[in-house]
Amino acid sequence: MATVLSIRHGGGESDPTEVINTRYAWVLLVSLAGLFTFCALFKFWFGSQKGQQSKFMARIKKHLIYAPLIRSGQTEFRLSSASVIFTIPTRLQACIIFTAVVLNIVLLVTHIAWDSAEKSLFSLVRNRAGTLATANLIPLVLLAGRHNPISSIFGISFSAVNIFHRWLGRIVVLEAVVHAAMWLASKSSTSGWSYVAEEFRSSQFIFTGLIAVISFISLGIHSPSIFRNKFYETFLHSHILLVCLALGGLWHHLEELPARRYLFAAIGIWAIQRLARFLLVIWRNCALAKTTRGIVKEIPGEAFQISVTMARPWHVQPGQYIFIYIPSIGLWTSHPFTIAWYDQNESSPTKESSDINVSEKSKENTIHLADINVPQKSKETTIHLIVKRRTGFTAALHRKIQKTEVHIANVSPLLEGPYGGKQYCLDTYGTVILFAGGVGITHQLLYARHILNGLEEGVLFGRRRIQLVWAIRNFEHIEWVRSWLECLFRLDRAKNAFHVQIFITRDYNGANDTLSLGGNLRLFSGRPDVDSILRCNVDQQVGPMAVTSCGPGTMSDQVRKACIDYQFDCNIDYFEGNYCW
Ligand SMILES: Cc1cc2nc3c(=O)[nH]c(=O)nc-3n(C[C@H](O)[C@H](O)[C@H](O)COP(=O)(O)OP(=O)(O)OC[C@H]3O[C@@H](n4cnc5c(N)ncnc54)[C@H](O)[C@@H]3O)c2cc1C
Fold this sequence. Notes:
Belongs to the ferric reductase (FRE) family. It is found in: Cell membrane. It catalyses: 2 a Fe(II)-siderophore + NADP(+) + H(+) = 2 a Fe(III)-siderophore + NADPH. The chain crosses the membrane at residues 24-46, 94-114, 129-146, 167-185, 205-222, 234-251. The chain is an alpha/beta fold and 581 residues long. It has three domains: 2-38 and 53-279, no CATH class; 290-420, Translation factors (Elongation Factor Tu (Ef-tu), domain 3), CATH 2.40.30; 431-576, Rossmann fold (3-Layer(aba) Sandwich). Helix content is 51%, strand content 17%. The strands form five sheets. The chain has a six-stranded parallel beta sheet with strand order 16-15-14-13-17-18, with helices on both faces. Strands 9-10-6-5-11 form a five-stranded antiparallel beta sheet, sandwiched between helices. A hairpin with a 3-residue loop joins strand 5 and strand 6 (303-309). It is globular, with a radius of gyration of 27 Å. Flavin-adenine dinucleotide (FAD) is lined by residues 158, 228-229, 232, 321, 335-338, 385-388, 390-395, 439, 442, 579, 581.
């Protein structure tokens, strides 16, 4: 069999061409690892630059780190506010992608005897492209999915990791196409198309290769942003199916060929990630005689709050998100939501007691955390999510609570995570401006809470200025977080340090609405003028300044642009936590 393969495919382990290809595959893997390590070190170094900003640093931030690739300042190419056609990387991300592309091209064309006869030239390029495509599967799988270690180790956001995953995927598809095209060109020119057709029918080696290539091409075609956003579940399930087909086909295609070792590693990483996720879900949601339980409550503005009391306590960090499974609604599917708030309780209700209390309280259509607690001695974490209704899982959940008399329902959720939270830390900034659009508020609240709590407890020091700027469509959306804002305003250090501006973009004249949450809160009609808000904060800046944004792409683009414009006036770091990918 090995001899047959070496004739067909160019060789086994000892074949000199394979030795060279193996060497190039390793060069590729080591270079990509080096590239990511360099990025991690750069991120670490960049994070430590908090003092007076040099002109050089300002230029790097303005033209490389924060700058979108194109001058228009957008990081998304949109047809309308709802349909994103594709994500545009920042210049820094584009540099990393460009390096990976160039690296692959160089490794594909180097050490190929370009003056060889046509047939052997086709074979050389074919084998090199095939080997590189297979080797690229390792970083591709490492960067795939929610549980990827690169994201956790390097603190890179879900959306940024996804950008790299997609570009590596495109490289793999192109290399697979080159591999197949070289074989087709060689066989059709020497033996004719009828021989090619016969090979597809009779040779398992060729047939499985064909399945793999078609699957890779399909993966490339079905992945654009517009399809992912419109039909997420269809995308996800077909993606997994095609990945299985591609890897399965390739596994048979590479039987007894050296490149199979890369595939083995890629499948191993994928299997370990899946297993780790499964174990994490079990561990998080099942403890001795306890499971995770949740309550879904309708809140104004086509939204609902999910409060989940975890089977085990956990130390929640700002910026963390979880994936929630509610099998009775979404079967095996899971959806990401950011932890908007959490409570660490000393007591632990049993399932029955919490159910009873909910139904009793339901009559008043209000529910508070205290209502679902029965005093017992153990620590437990309740996390709160604010979920805006969309058209799939969230709509089904919304329908379920609509059917209940008081629009509150008990659910049995499973939470996977937490993920994120390591992307950035705002502890060392004197001035922090948190921009949120709509449900993006869930990303920002815990950052404010973390800093204010740190100041109260003496863990953080010095003068601080935290400004929360929140744009919402309707006045009623304030209800989503009203009680939590009140909690923050009650903190001593919030009096001077915490300022909130809420911009109501629709149907608001400000005349009839009164809002007294006991703190520095101001309501405005219309959209926030990002530039003047930033100017005002630059004038009153305390220490280094961090600006973060979580909301619609258009809003984040404005905030990003304003931060870029002020780079030479002061030291501003910009971070994004959007819910797109
Ligand atoms: C890191 C992160 C944090 C988020 N935090 C919040 C939050 O705090 N509150 C909130 O209301 N929304 C949040 N979202 C968005 C939320 O996950 C989606 O709105 C929700 O999954 C939509 O479910 P659906 O089936 O009703 O969506 P659909 O109506 O089918 O689709 C609406 C949009 O949600 C996207 N989407 C659907 N399912 C998923 C999924 N499983 N994973 C990723 N995206 C998906 C689709 O691509 C589409 O763009 C967050 C998203 C991410 C990536």
